[in-house]
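Pilot study result, target chain (483 residues):
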Amino acid sequence: MRWLFILTLLPATLFCQSRPAADEVVSLTDKNLTQFAKESAPGLRQIEATLESAKLIRDSIDDQYHWRLQTDASHLSAKERSLNQFAPVTTDVTQLQTALIKPFSSGLSVGVSAFSNQVTNTFTTDATDTGFGLNLSVDLMKNLFGKLSRAQINNAEALYEKAKLEKEIQEKAFLQGLRRIYWSIVATNEQIKISQGLLETSLKQLADTEKRKKSNVADEGDVARSRSQVASRRSNILLLEYQRESQLQQLKEQIPSLANKKIVLGKVDLTQAIVEVLACTTVIQAHKSTPYEYTSYDEVLALVKAAYREKQTVTDSSDGWDLTLNGEAKYFGKDLSYDSSIDGISGDPQRRYSVGLQLNIPLDGKKTATEDTMKRIDEKRFIAEKEMISAKLNAYHSQTLTNIALLQSAVRTQGQNSQDLQTSLKSAQKKFNQARLSFRELINDQDLLLQSNLDEVRTKLTVLTTLLDYFSVFNQTPCGLNQ
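Predicted structure:
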């Protein structure tokens, strides 16, 4: 009997254990949305990675001018015959060298070294040179006085500073994109509330129509039309709810920390947001010309020009002659063993000096053609980027003013239209109750009011998102909505 009792309880126990925990509820507002995004949004991590790539390029150029240690070791063993009794044959050669080398951005390279060379031939065994050396190398053409090095460094630095500004701009644009989704959810909720209000009215009308049919005042067609209206209202609400869930999905994809949480909207007022839009519009309208002080793009444009100037210098140096002056001084001891040669550094020091010129001259026109192609590419990229930035700034400012003015006029017109339709519907309801208006005409008036209210919400959303797009470009606009 006890086993039967346990077996009876087992399925219920397993069912309770397998039930998923209730989703954590998160109250989302326009203000804490940014905080959630900064904590986990992959889009922001990608933007940061782009900046790190620009930093890597800059650092890789700086790395060329750091101290570096270079070590060489080699051994040669040969078995050869002498061509005559006076010509020595080298049988063993051992070379060891350790050098510290420091290239400078001025076109100068300095190296200090310690070395030991040991040679054995038919006349001498273990002839050894051990000592220290100093090497100098100076570029006398392309990088004279560091012209090319400075251009490379300045170009990389300008591109890095540009990348830092673009990171700020892109982060702001990304966050404004999330706010667009958030306010779309707010607008959808408003539309659902409006639709639910009319659904309740439709349900009351259905109940009233069914009563009127029992009293033989309405027929089966009126009841069917009333049911159709209820179904239509419910269908519209379901579609709006689907739209809201799709918008929530977009938001969760962008912010993984919200992916498995239930999102509810905090207290929010779309109409109040439109009032704030009016305040922001006043700030924008105060500037007839493009307000460069409200954007970072003007600094980006200046850095684009600076980077292009330095890139021109680099490209101009890619062709032509290359002349290098090399000098070397050695201070060493010389004897027939390592130990003796080391002692000779202080007891009987030897000195050796050398100087030379290295000239490199291209003999065909391929490098010249390559340089011309590089110049055209650099110029076209520069012009394209400069014009895109200038066009974006000018178009966004002038067109946003026009668009918002038109949309605000549309909101006012739609608001007046909704008020008039509300008044008309009250009159229609009265006439319907007095049997002076058909049920079909009453439903038509209700549909017109519903559509007007929904259009008004959509237009308010468009006004708000248009301003958010403006803030993605003019990211320093002093306005309450510009977070």
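One observation from the pilot: The first helix runs from residue 2 to 18. A full batch analysis is planned for the follow-on phase.
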